[in-house]
Amino acid sequence: MYHRIWSVVNVLLIIGSIIYIWLFRPHDNTLIVISQFLAQIAMILFIFNVNMYFIFLIIRKTNKREVKIRLATFSRYFMKWHIKISISSTILIVGHVLINLVKIGPVIGYENIKMLMGYTSFVFLLVTLFAGYLRHKKATGFRKKFHRITAMIFTVLFLIHMLAPI
Ligand code: HEM
Ligand code: HEM
């Protein structure tokens, strides 16, 4: 049951963001379109990473042996990409940030809600990376929880940032 909700939410997030960005937030300026493209790719990659939480959760909770084995194999493979994905998408986001600071900031003002939520999400991205690094070095109960919670807060924040009007 829960895995169905989880799949639907993922599809909604990905298709929804594609529709929202490309149909509802059109821009003429090439650089700004590139910044949107960078953010679009990065947010999909971040969503892949956040999904690890649900995969580990289902592995822990399911009674079905077959599901456990299949997801455990999948997660072992996918975790090889986890750090690479987070670093690549952070680099994409840095491009997104620089373009917006230079091109959009002066037009809408640096205190615009879109900008403020952008700074906030970026700070939480850095905290999540740091927490991930700590967890990678030595996984204590606190560090696991810290990485999990910062990742969730970061996800909520960047979704609010994405949806915030200019
Ligand atoms: C200092 C940090 C940031 C600033 C100043 C910033 C600024 C902006 C601005 C001005 C837009 C609107 C562009 C437009 O009208 O198309 C935008 C869109 C977007 N940003 Fe950010 N951003 C920041 C960080 C982030 C982060 C960390 C993410 C995480 C994934 C992100 C994801 C997105 C997405 C998905 C959009 C597309 C939605 C839209 O076009 O309105 N941004 N950002
Ligand atoms: C912004 C990027 C990132 C996001 C959104 C993210 C998200 C997540 C989530 C949701 C989990 C599952 C947590 C759980 O259920 O306990 C996880 C696990 C993990 N993450 Fe990240 N993470 C990010 C970056 C990183 C980085 C940069 C590192 C390391 C340098 C890292 C290392 C780990 C490790 C070692 C695990 C545990 C895997 C396991 O238990 O086998 N993460 N991450």
UniProtKB/TrEMBL annotation:
Transmembrane spans: 7-25, 37-60, 81-104, 116-134, 146-164
Protein origin, superkingdom: Bacteria
Keywords attached to this entry: Membrane, Transmembrane, Transmembrane helix
Protein name per the record: Ferric oxidoreductase domain-containing protein
Organism: Neobacillus massiliamazoniensis
Lineage, top ranks: Bacteria, Bacillati, Bacillota, Bacilli, Bacillales
